[in-house]
Write a structure and sequence with these properties.
The complex is a heterodimer of chains A (148) and B (263). Chain A is mostly helical. Chain A has one domain. Chain A contains six helices and no strands. Chain A starts with a helix and ends in a 6-residue tail after the last helix. The longest helix of chain B is centred in the last third of the chain and has 31 residues. In chain B, strands 1-2-3 form a three-stranded antiparallel β-sheet, covered by helices on one side. The termini of chain B are far apart. In chain B, helix 1 packs antiparallel against helix 2 and helix 9 runs antiparallel to helix 10. Chain B is mainly α and 263 residues long. Chain B folds into two domains: 115 residues, no CATH class; 136 residues, no CATH class. The chains are: A mainly alpha (148), B mainly alpha (263). The interface between A and B is large, with 49 and 57 residues.
Chain lengths: 148, 263
């Protein structure tokens, strides 16, 4: 039940981004869907005791893979799905807490939370890179056309 | 006279390709997509030698149809970026259609201008987007319905404020700094007035609006396709944006705590 609510919340947040980034109306649902799926996977993995970094990594892989899939189905640029999709995973909370710890001059906490935030960001980056290079390789194998 | 006509066609193709590349870069496209699109447009009109070099801040196109005519080169500096993913996709599609069926250049140019002039979501809808992002992120962080409503208002207000700063031509980093300072200020006011209690959740939820998602994603995708210069520039943009957000919020919280307030 909690995960279902989280799905709805993440869907709403991602749908908000689609309005800001001017994503066509017909794709709002799918962009929201990939963002929400990624966020729920992240929550699920984190709750079942995986490290927060592995959770971010796997969730970003899912979002990137869904975005590549949708971009091919609808023949659109994959940016349309991936950018609103990964935003829920970007560690805004980590950034805020790092800044707060720095203001309290608690340098140990700053280093600890800051490193975790950086590693989460890195995990998202690596996930995007892995999925899109994999998809590019498969696309090149199947067609002579470059990545959409 | 023969060469003159040939060169005229080249020049028109160049202007068409340049305009397409310019619109894509101004909408926040990845570099490889811009370069592919420009090359595809030039090839569609039968120009054999095309070289494109694009970065986030400018585009260089050089083309030569061989034979007697002179090669053409043009440079365009890109200054204003306003994220518009729909236009990127439309121009990508436009260039594909063009390579299947090269319509006359003047017709292609007017199609391109139609895409460039295509309406975005209206301003109230964009504000709604900002409000949705802020409020739903607040919920995702475990806050209740009162924080949801406060963030809805903060998100809408701050998005509109950011838009106002944009129209006054504030630099991206200053805009984020000021907008995030406003977020922290409004969130503190909401909780001091007793409207909501999770100040943290409201601040984090609302600052998600300004997170550099596009710069971050494109930094990765650009570096991956070998456009290291653009990748590094975008990564820098993402890092500076994150710092400007954190310092905007930080300054307000610092003043608030120094003035004896409690978080």
């Amino acid at each position: 039940m909690m995960l279902f609510l989280q799905f709805l919340f993440a869907f709403g947040a991602t749908a908000g981004f689609t309005l800001i980034f001017n994503i066509p109306r017909r794709h709002i649902f799918f962009a929201g869907f990939s963002g929400a799926c990624g966020w729920v996977l992240f929550q699920y993995l984190f709750l079942t005791g995986q490290s927060i970094i592995i959770s971010s990594f796997l969730a970003s892989c899912l979002i990137a893979a869904l975005s590549e899939l949708f971009s091919r189905v609808f023949k659109e640029a994959s940016l349309i799905f991936i950018i609103p999709g990964i935003l829920p995973l970007v560690p805004g909370a980590g950034m805020y807490k790092t800044m707060l710890a720095l203001l309290k001059e608690d340098l140990t906490a700053t280093a600890q939370i800051g490193t975790e935030t950086l590693l989460m960001t890195g995990a998202i980056a690596v996930a995007i890179i892995i999925v899109s290079s994999f998809v590019r390789a498969v696309t090149l194998l199947l067609t002579s056309d470059r990545l959409r | 006279m023969g060469t003159v006509t040939v060169n005229q066609i080249e020049k028109n193709v160049l202007m068409l390709a340049l305009r397409a590349g310019e619109i894509m870069l101004m909408s926040g496209s990845e570099i490889y997509r811009v370069e592919d699109t420009v090359t595809r447009i030039c090839k569609a009109y039968g120009i054999p030698y095309v070289e494109v070099f694009a970065t986030t801040t400018g585009i260089f196109i050089s083309l030569d149809s061989g034979g007697e005519g002179k090669p053409y080169t043009i440079i365009k500096r890109i200054r204003k970026v306003a994220i518009d993913l729909d236009r990127i996709s439309l121009i990508n599609d436009f260039s594909r259609k063009l390579s299947d069926d090269p319509v006359p250049i003047s017709e292609a140019m007017s199609l391109l201008e139609q895409i460039a002039a295509k309406e975005k979501y209206t301003f109230p809808l964009q504000v709604l987007g900002g409000a949705l992002v802020a409020s739903f992120f607040t919920l995702m962080l475990g806050a209740g319905y009162r924080e949801f409503l406060c963030s809805l208002a903060i998100g809408a207000g701050v998005y509109a404020f950011g838009h106002l700063l944009d129209s006054l031509q504030f630099h991206l980093f200053i805009r984020n700094f000021l907008a995030c300072a406003l977020i922290a200020f409004l969130a503190i006011i909401c909780s001091t007035a007793g409207l909501a209690s999770h100040t943290d959740a409201m601040i984090i939820g609302s600052l998600m609006i300004f997170l550099p998602g596009l710069a971050f994603t494109n930094a990765m995708r650009d570096s991956l396709s070998g456009d290291l210069l653009a990748g590094a520039a975008r990564a820098m943009e993402a890092a500076l944006t994150a710092i400007s957000i954190a310092s905007g919020v930080g300054v307000v919280i610092f003043i608030w705590v120094a003035a004896g307030g409690v978080l």
